[in-house]
Design brief:
Blueprint: H1 2-7, H2 12-33, H3 42-59, H4 64-96, H5 99-108, H6 115-152, H7 162-193, H8 200-219, H9 222-231
Length: about 230
C-alpha cells in the first residue's frame, strides 16, 4: 500500500512518460531482433556473419585468431558489466542522499518536491542499469559456452562432428551477441531515464532521442550499408 501511496504523488503525465519509455524500450528491442526480411537490422546481419565465421573456423589452422576474437568479445562484456555495476552503485548512493538534487530542483521551481519522488525517478534509471548488467553477465557466460564448443570442434574438417559442433557454437555466439546488444540498449535508455529528473516532458523527449539513436544505428547506419553491400 505504501508503494501505491508514493506512486500517487506522481502526476498523470509522469505515468504516461514512464509508460512511453518502457514501451519504446520493449518495442525497439523486438523490432531489432525481428525485422522484416526486406529491412534487416545490423544485429540480424551480424548473426549471419557469425555463422559464416564458424564455418571458416572449422578449416582454419591454427585457430589462435579465433580464440583472440572470442577473448576480446568476452572482455567487452566484462567491461560493460563492471561499468553497469558502478553506475548502479552511484544511482543507489544518490537515492540515499538526494540533497544535491533537491538543491538543483529548488533553483528551478518553488514547489517542494518530496524525497521519495527523486528516489522513484532514480529507481527507473537503476531498473534499466540492472537489466543491462544482467544481460552483460549472461552474454559473458554464453561466450564462455561458445568457447568450450569451439574447443570441442575436431581439427579434421572431414570429421562428421566438425560442422555440427561449429554450428552449435555459432548459435551460442549469436545468443551472446543478442544479450550484449540488449545490455547496450538498457544503458542507452538508462541515460534517457535520467531526464525524468527534469520532468515528464523531458523524459518523453529523451525517450524519442534515444529511440532515434538506437533505430538509426540498427537500420540507417553506415556499418549496415557496408554489410548489405558485402552481402550482394
Amino acid at each position: 500500500m505504501q508503494l501505491f501511496d508514493h506512486m500517487a504523488l506522481l502526476a498523470p503525465l509522469d505515468l504516461i512518460a514512464v509508460a512511453t519509455i518502457l514501451l519504446a524500450w520493449l518495442a525497439i528491442g523486438w523490432r531489432i531482433e525481428h525485422p522484416g526480411a526486406k529491412s534487416p537490422s545490423v544485429t540480424v546481419l551480424m548473426s549471419q556473419a557469425r555463422r559464416d565465421w564458424m564455418k571458416v573456423f572449422v578449416a582454419r589452422d591454427p585457430r589462435i585468431f579465433d580464440s583472440q576474437i572470442l577473448a576480446s568479445l568476452r572482455q567487452g562484456t566484462a567491461f560493460f558489466a563492471s561499468t553497469c555495476l558502478l553506475a548502479v552503485g552511484g544511482v543507489l548512493a544518490l537515492a540515499g542522499n538526494t540533497e544535491p538534487l533537491r538543491g538543483v530542483a529548488a533553483e528551478v521551481t518553488e514547489m517542494a518536491i518530496p524525497v521519495v519522488i527523486f528516489q522513484i525517478k532514480l529507481g527507473l534509471v537503476a531498473l534499466f542499469l540492472t537489466n543491462a548488467f544482467l544481460k552483460f553477465v549472461w552474454a559473458n557466460r554464453i561466450f564462455g559456452y561458445c568457447a568450450v564448443l569451439m574447443a570441442a570442434v575436431p581439427n579434421d574438417p572431414n570429421d562428421p562432428e566438425a560442422y555440427p559442433r561449429a554450428a552449435q557454437a555459432a548459435e551460442l555466439n549469436i545468443r551472446a551477441a543478442i544479450n550484449f546488444n540488449r545490455g547496450l540498449r538498457g544503458m542507452y535508455f538508462a541515460l534517457g531515464a535520467l531526464a525524468w529528473l527534469a520532468g515528464a516532458v523531458a523524459l518523453i523527449l529523451a525517450t524519442l532521442v534515444v529511440l532515434s539513436v538506437v533505430w538509426s544505428r540498427e537500420f540507417a547506419s553506415l556499418p549496415r550499408k557496408i554489410l548489405l553491400e558485402e552481402g550482394l
